[in-house]
Each structure stands twice: as C-alpha cells, then as structure tokens.
Design brief:
Two copies of one chain form a homodimer.
Chain A (H helix, E strand, L loop, with lengths): L1 H24 L11 E8 L6 H4 L1 E7 L1 H9 L7 E12 L2 E15 L10 E7 L13 H7 L15
Antiparallel strand pairs in A: 1-2, 2-3, 3-4, 4-5
Chain lengths: 160, 160
C-alpha cells in the first residue's frame, strides 16, 4: 500500500516537473496581446502557397519592445510579435472575421533561440493557450523567415 | 495708416477666433488611436450598398472608455471609436492594405451631441488631421447608426 502510494506520488511529481519544464522552455502564450499595437492586417486566400495553414485574415500585434523594433528594423530581447489568424466569411459583398485558427508568436531571446535567429516560434491552436502547434523547435518557421534576415527575420513592416 | 493697421488686426483676430471656434466645436482628431484597442476588422467590397465611401478594409479602434463600452453595450462620455478605412490591393491570392481613405470618428458627449444620440461624428480625409468630411453635423451618419439604438448606436461588438 505504501509502495503503491509512493509510486503514485512519483508519477504525479514527474508529470508536474515535465509540464513545468515544458512551460519554462516553451515560448509563453502572449497574454494581453489584444491590447498591444495593431501593426498591420493581411488576408491570405485559397490557392496561396501558404494556404495551409495560413489561409485567413491575420492581424499582427507588437508589444512595446517589438513596436520599437518595427521602427528600427531590429529587435531587443523581450520583443514579442503575434500573428493572430482568424477564418473569414465572405458574404453580401463583405469579408468578415470568423473563428480564430491560431495565435502565432515570435519571441526574441538571442541566447535561448540562437539557432533560429534569436527568435522562438510557437503557434497556439484556436483559442487555446496550451495546445502548441510547433513541433520542430521552430526550424520550419525559421526556414521561411530566414529570407528576411535584413529585417531581423520579421516580414512585417510598420505602416502609418 | 493707423486705420489700415487696425483693420488688418481686426481681420487677423476674426480669423483666429473663427478657427479656434471651429476647433472647439468640431470632433477632435483622435490622436494616438493606432495605440488603442484594435476591436475588429472588416472588408467592404465593390457592389456593397456602402461602397461609396466605405469600400476598403476598415479597422475599429477604441480608447479606454470605449473599450469598456464595447463590453457593456453603452458608452460613457469621453468614449471614442475610430473607423480607420484603408484601400486594399488584391494580388497573388492575398488582400493587402493600401493607402488610407479616411479616419472616421465617433466621440461621445451626451450634452454636446444630444441631437445625434450623444455621439459626435466626423471623418478626416486620408492622412489629414484637419480636412473634415462631415458637412451636416453628423445627421447622415446618425441616420444609419440609429438602427443600433439598443447598442448605444454602435455597430461594432467586441470579439475575443
């Protein structure tokens, strides 16, 4: 009985430790991003090379440090950019926002994410803050963003 | 000579007073709105009943009081909502933001704008902060917004 209890306790703690470790290592969910600077918006239609998974209307939000980065073209550690992707509905000569598909995140930490240009990449499914979509440590994200090296790997620019 | 000087002075002062009066009366340009809450976005296409002047992609921004209003469905004096209308460019299976068409403003002041539901309406052309588009004291704007009386005359709702 005592052994069973100890085994249960060990399993319980290993789960706790594993989850904590994943949270410590992973790019954090960008709490409060809907109150950050709305930098720009773009719509990707069916037939675009990035249709899967990026078809939809996306808004890019920047925290304070990332807003400075957008002006300068380079980003201090702690900069966070959010790619907020929603489905869209086309009707009656309008295109309207639909359900959220994912929340993409770029989180600058030069040391921690040195192998991907200093940026941590993550995607959170739908409205979840825990269901993570990036499975390769951001390598595939970086493979596309590397084309924007001159802008510190960020596609977005700042519009007026 | 002295009379000419006095006449010039009188004309000068009347211009100053007239401009100041217009500024005091008009809905102010919403300085800093690009840093406010981005509430929602919608695209209006050619053929829509509001095509002229509202064809484009528009973003709705809310200052702090208006953000509370969006949650409650009624707005305190000092609430400001911005309808930021941009042209759009459709190419290569994307729709991208273009030049700014106008900045529409709703400014809540129950006493001052009592005849239009407590809201002052204004539009600023393109990137101008002074070229005003609303010529009828907001009556035509209110004529459409009156349908939303239950939501304090605001079309937009708050999305997650």
């Amino acid at each position: 009985m005592k052994i069973k209890f100890l085994v249960t306790l060990a399993v319980f703690w290993s789960v706790i430790v594993t989850v904590s470790y994943a949270q410590a290592e992973g790019v954090p969910f960008p709490e409060g991003y809907r109150n950050w600077l709305h930098a720009k918006t773009m719509l990707i239609q069916a037939g675009h090379p990035l249709e899967n998974p990026f078809q939809g209307i996306h808004h890019v939000y920047a925290n304070g440090k990332a807003a400075n980065g957008l002006k300068k073209g380079s980003y201090a550690d702690g900069s966070v950019l959010v790619f907020d992707l929603l489905n869209y509905v086309e009707k009656d000569k309008t295109i309207q926002e639909g359900e959220r598909k994912l929340v993409g995140v770029m989180h600058k930490d030069s040391a921690k994410y040195a192998s991907t240009g200093g940026w941590g990449f993550e995607g959170f499914a739908g409205n979840s803050k825990t269901e993570r979509l990036v499975k390769d440590g951001g390598k595939s994200c970086f493979g596309c963003h590397v084309s924007e090296k001159a802008k510190d790997y960020v596609f977005s620019g700042l519009r007026e």
